[in-house]
Amino acid sequence: xxxxxxxxxxxxxxxxxxxxxxxxxxxxxxxxxxxxxxxxxxxxxxxxxxxxxxxxxxxxxxxxxxxxxxxxxxxxxxxxxxxxxxxxxxxxxxxxxxxxxxxxxxxxxxxxxxxxxxxxxxxxxxxxxxxxxxxxxxxxxxx
Length: 143
Fold this sequence. Notes:
There is one protein chain. This protein has 4 helices and 4 strands, in the order H-H-H-E-E-E-E-H. It is of the alpha+beta class. It has one domain (37-142). A 4-stranded antiparallel β-sheet has the order 1-2-3-4, sandwiched between helices. Helix 2 packs antiparallel against helix 3 (61-71). The protein is globular, with a radius of gyration of 17 Å. Mean pLDDT is 76; it is low at 4-38.
């Protein structure tokens, strides 16, 4: 099962779309956003990856790793996995992958219940792990 963020009163006030309300744009041109050339493909790769992760039925660390590897889109890379050991709250195992043409690093977390998988992008909670993943890629690039 893939975990998704829930709307809270705090984030619905700041983001009306989180509550299901849709704000009207002042004009049709204001709603148009010019994407970076690779952005649509990256988003599609991330969506496809997250959908492929859904349906995990447990089975321990080996089953988690096998499931993450199978879910990777063409061109994606499984870098490594490790016990969470408190690196990310609520996770028992973390797989580090690269997805998309821009090769975005993602952290795939197996929750402590052993059934729920969630993905995280590099951010404040994962800063140390992101640096480790970058160092890992640098070493692999040297080989």
